[in-house]
Input
Amino acid sequence: MKIYTRTGDKGQTALIGGRVDKDDIRVEAYGTVDELNSFVGQAIAELETEKFTDVIADLEKIQHELFDCGGDLASVSKRRQEKLTEETISYLEQRIDILMEETPDLERFILPGGSKPAASIHIARTITRRAERLVVRLLKQDSSVPVVTLQYLNRLSDYFFALARVVNFRLDVKDVEYIRSAKVFHTGKRKE
Output
């Protein structure tokens, strides 16, 4: 099987239901989601299987969802059926809540990094934010883009933030607070 087709040699690529230039905002958006998926794969490869079974399962699920997200973004067909759903977002929200319970309260911004896998997850978080910005631009041009895609990416970046903190916590690596940060997060606990 040959993996090259030569159909993109003139700067265009196929979508589901059409063709566009390779620098089209739609291609940029789903290409960024593909880049993100690669960093999620890198994070999985850096995690110790025994200590992070739940995290690896989440990340593998997310990799499939990112393929779904890319497919949703690559479709211009009038008969398309989106693969991402509200349930996908609800699951992420549940996982974020669980992860945040595992880590110490946070009052200030933290620097991305810590352990190697947490650093990879922070990279995934920032790429997610870029993908989200690109989808916002795409939505301004094409209102038929599924809004759930934007919502998913927004929630996914929050998930990666919570996850990076959990990974550092389980590896006994402290988050490094940004030294010039004011107290921006409130614990919700009242002082007696």
